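Lecture notes, unit on binding sites. The following record was shown on slide 14. It pairs a sequence with D-serine.
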Amino acid sequence: MPTRDPSLAERDPEIARLIREEAELEARTLRLIPSENYASRAVLEASGSVLTNKYSEGYVGKRYYEGQAVIDQVEALAIARLKQLFGAEHVNVQPYSGSPANLAAYLAFCQPNDPIMGLGLPFGGHLTHGWNVSITGRYFKSVPYGLSPKDHRIDLDEVRRLAHEHKPKLIWCGTSAYPRTLDFPAFRAIADEVGAKLCADIAHIAGLVVGGAHPSPIGIADVITTTTHKSLRGPRGAVIMCKQEHAKEIDRAVFPGLQGGPHNHTTAAIAVAAKEAMTPEFKAYATNTVANAKALAEGLLGRGFTLVTGGTDNHLILIDLTSRGVTGKVAAKALDRAGICANYNAVPYDTRKPFDPSGLRIGTPAVTSRGMGAAEMSKLAGWIDEVVKAPSDDALSARIAREVEEVCKSFPAPGLLTA
Ligand code: DSN
C-alpha cells in the first residue's frame, strides 16, 4: 500500500511537462478556431475529479451498479440546470461527444437505409449529418442539401424540393462552418410537410443560444444536440435535449443503444458550465462574441478580404482567400507561426481539395472569453492581413507572434492559471 500518492509531476514528469507546455502555448497565442474555447478553472477541476472512478450504466435512480448515492445527484443536478438554461423538456447528459449524440438521434428515429437530409460537409455541414465518409452517410440514404450559388446562404427552396422528393425520416439543421443565423421555424415547416423529425445540431452556437444571441430551436426541433465545449465553454462532452414525447427513444438510443457507462466527471463539469452559463456575465459574453465577430469581419472587409456571405451573424467568419492568391492551408500555417491559430476550410463551391482548400475559418468564442473587444479585433484583422500578404516571411511572423504574446498578457485566458 503506498503511503503517499505522487503528484503528476512526480509520477510522470513527461506528461506534466507537456500539459504545462500546452498551457503556456494557449496563454501566449490567440485561438481563433471557432469550435474551441477555454474551460474555466472550476470546469477543469470537476472534469479532473474522482468522479472518473465510478461506473453508472443506466439513468438516475435506475442503475445497473450500486454505489450511486453521489453520482445520481451529480447527474440530476446537471439535467436540472440544463433544463433551466435551455428551457428544455427532457435532457440527456450522457453522450460522450457530438458525434455519438448525433448517432443517437439516428438510432432513435431511423432504420438502416432510411433517407435523411443534412447540409453537405463542403457547404459547412458536419460529417455526422450524412456525409459519405461518415457512418451516417453509409448506413442511411443521405440526401445532402447545399447553399444557394448566388448568396451562399442555405437554400430553403432546395431543402423543400429535396425533402418532398426523398421523404427523409430525419432532417438536420445545424452547421460547422456557416456564418449566418439558422431559421429553425422554416426547417420545422419543411419537416412537417414531409413527416420528418427535425434535429437541430447547435454545437457551434449553443453558448449564443443560451445567451440570447441566436434564436433557440427549443420547442421547434424534435431533438437538439450540442457539444458542451465550444461556445458553451464546458468540458469536452455533449447533451441531447428533446420534447418529452421522444424522451424514452432518445434515452434508450444513448444507453444501451450506443454507449456504456457515462463519464461522470464530464457530467459534473457540464453541470458547472451550465451554472456559469446562467449568469449575466455569460449573457454579455454571448453578445460580445457576436459583436467581436462583426467587428473582425468589418476589419477584414476593410482590408479587401472576401468573406463568404459578405459577413457574419454569429461567432464565425469564413474567409475566401482565392482573390488573395494564397490557399487556406498556407495561410493557416503562416498564421500559426505568428501565434494566431485558425483552420483551413473549404468555401462553398470550392474548386480546391478539402486537404488544401481556398478558405480560412475563424471565430471569436475564445478571444471573447479572454475579454478582448473591438480594439483587439481591429489588431487581429491587421495581423491576418499582414500574414496573408507575406505568408513565407518568417521575420514578419516572428514579429507578430511577439506582438500577439504582448496582447495576450493583458487578457489572461480562463483556466490557464498555471501559465
Ligand atoms: N470539429 C468541430 C468543428 O471544428 O467545427 C465540429 O465537430
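Take-home: Residues 287-410 form a domain with the Aspartate Aminotransferase, domain 1 fold (CATH 3.90.1150.10).
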